[in-house]
Design goal:
Pfam families: MmgE_PrpD_C, MmgE_PrpD_N. By secondary structure, this protein is an alpha+beta fold. The chain is built from 19 helices and seven strands. It has helices at 21-30, 37-57, 61-71, 92-104, 124-133, 138-158, 169-184, 188-201, 216-236, 252-255, 293-306, 321-326, 343-346, 350-360, 371-374, 377-383, 392-399, 441-451, 458-469; strands at 2-7, 74-79, 263-268, 312-319, 386-390, 410-416, 421-426. A four-stranded mixed beta sheet has the order 5-4-6-7. It has a two-stranded antiparallel ribbon with strand order 1-3. The protein is globular, with a radius of gyration of 22 Å. The termini are far apart.
């Protein structure tokens, strides 16, 4: 890996395009280096993971709305839409939109945390849609996804967005554009322009994950994937982008990040170096914000030791800056303590999550979020006794580069009404690659079978798994097999219509 210094350049200065971050990203995208077997296997795992959480969300309103919008844009050859039969084909950018929302709705797929946040499997829906529409093979899709993961993970390593209240999809647009460039075998110039267009059109604020969090939290990554496809299409037609997008005098760093005079360090593979970043990412065992994963496991462990939860006086979670300020009391969001808050808000309240996990001894992607569950008086009482505080040591470990040091958990101090104190800590979720029970292929298979149970027919479950696990052998034009189809009754009730539904 080579670490590249990225900063603002004045217009009067000459920054050769070969020295611009977008050009360096495009060089990684066009590098024909082989994909290692271990990487290809993990890509298959994440395709299975995405389908699992998409299946579980098909009947939910935001997913149904996105699917309804997409179905108004039929196209051939086109791409498939989760839930619909293989004969239903729509324009690829709309397929990426619908499928991206389905994947993201439950906040239950993979994650990478470093200088910023990310869910790198958000690259899969746009790349799969383009691959289906353009008749690519499984091996070509694998190559494209290796690039998408590589670029997103390394942007997340080097550039912090959230401190400037920029949503993390600003790293996803460029990574998806680069991945599509690899998938289609595009030249450096085209990918360079597409990456910059994608950055320019997917820079949005973090209000989508603040205060009263709405369904846009699920829509935002799908929007980035849709924009990436459109950016590549324009670039293929010869249209350019605002350049240099990151380094320009009025560009991304100068006015949206830390400003002129600030430098960022972004690592990227050298020419001929394998793209292995996906191996540094991790999926979720529980349907909740990643920074709650280890704490759910810790609550499960601590519950029997505490015993009667009515005897609790207070619970303090000592954790990282990110956890305290994003999903903890450091956010200052009263909604995180509101029993009537949306599912999306509860998903970003570690106080709520820890309380329910203590009471139930685990977590469920539906039952743990119902209004009845959130409104239970004993739960509300316990929930409101929980607070978070930043611990510099947990913040240091959160950002540590040494995998033996890196941690996303915390230390929990429970004070009982009789004065006794019970403490415990957990650095990594059980399912993390370095955790107590790392996820393997069988775990991904089981997650898919569990979340799609009662939604997909058994034969469809097995058909999909066989197709996904045989991805490398799927021939050009066969990627429609990576769709999941359900009976119409599994897609939820009728929904309100919109502009696209209107016919002459």
């Amino acid at each position: 890996m080579k670490t590249h210094t990225v900063r603002t350049w004045k217009s009067a200065e000459h920054l050769p395009r070969e020295e611009q971050l977008a050009w360096k990203i495009s060089r990684v995208a066009v590098d024909p280096v082989a994909v290692e077997d271990e990487v290809a296997e993990m890509i298959i795992n994440r395709i299975i993971d995405n389908a699992a959480v998409a299946a579980a969300s098909l009947a939910r309103r935001p997913v149904a709305s996105a699917r309804a919008q997409a179905l108004c844009h039929p196209h051939g050859p086109g791409a498939t839409v989760f839930g619909m039969g293989p004969e239903t084909r729509i324009s690829p950018e709309w397929a990426a939109w619908a499928n991206g929302v389905a994947v993201r709705e439950l906040d239950f797929h993979d994650t990478f945390l470093a200088a910023d946040y990310s869910h790198p499997a958000d690259n899969i829906p746009p790349l799969l849609a383009v691959a289906q529409h353009t008749g690519r093979s499984g091996a070509e899709l694998i190559r494209g996804l290796a690039t998408g993961y590589e670029i997103q993970v390394n942007l997340v390593r080097g550039i912090c967005l959230h401190e400037h209240k920029i949503d993390h999809i600003a790293h996803l647009g460029p990574s998806a554009a680069a991945g599509i460039g690899t998938l289609l075998g595009l030249d450096t110039e085209t990918v360079y322009q597409a990456v910059q267009q994608a950055l320019h059109t997917t820079t949005t604020t973090r209000q989508s994950r603040k205060g009263e969090i709405s369904s846009w939290k699920a829509y935002a990554p799908a929007f980035a994937g849709k924009m990436a496809i459109e950016a590549v299409d324009r670039a293929m037609r010869g249209e350019g982008a605002p350049s240099p997008a990151w380094e320009g005098e009025d560009g991304f760093i100068a006015y949206l990040l830390s400003g002129p005079g600030t430098t960022y360090q972004v690592p990227l593979p050298e020419p001929g170096e394998a793209k292995r970043a996906i191996l540094d990412t991790y999926t979720k065992e529980h349907s909740a914000e990643y920074q709650s994963q280890a704490l759910i496991d810790l609550a499960r462990r601590m519950g029997p030791r505490i015993g009667d939860l009515a005897a609790v006086e207070s619970i303090v979670i000592h954790t990282s800056h990110h956890t305290h300020y994003v999903i903890g009391t450091g956010a200052g969001d009263p909604q995180k303590l509101d029993p009537k808050a949306s599912r999306e808000t509860l998903d970003h309240s570690i106080m709520y999550i820890f309380a329910v996990a203590l009471e139930d001894g685990g977590w469920h992607h539906v039952d743990s979020y119902t209004p009845e569950r959130a409104g239970r008086p004993a739960t509300v009482a316990l929930w409101h006794k929980i607070s978070t505080t930043e611990d510099p040591e947990w913040t240091r470990r959160y950002h540590a580069r040494d995998p033996r040091e890196k941690a996303f958990g915390g230390r929990v101090v429970v004070t009982l009404k009789d004065g006794r104190v019970i403490e415990d800590e957990l650095a990594l979720a059980d399912a993390h690659p370095d955790g107590a029970r790392p996820f393997r292929r069988e775990n991904y298979r089981q997650k898919f079978l569990t979340l799609s149970d009662g939604i997909l027919a058994a034969a469809e479950q097995q058909r999909f798994l066989a197709a996904a696990e045989g991805l490398a052998e799927l021939k050009a034009g066969d990627l429609g097999a990576l769709n999941i189809a359900v009976a119409p009754g599994k897609l939820g009730a009728a929904r309100p219509t919109g502009i696209f539904d209107v016919t002459a």
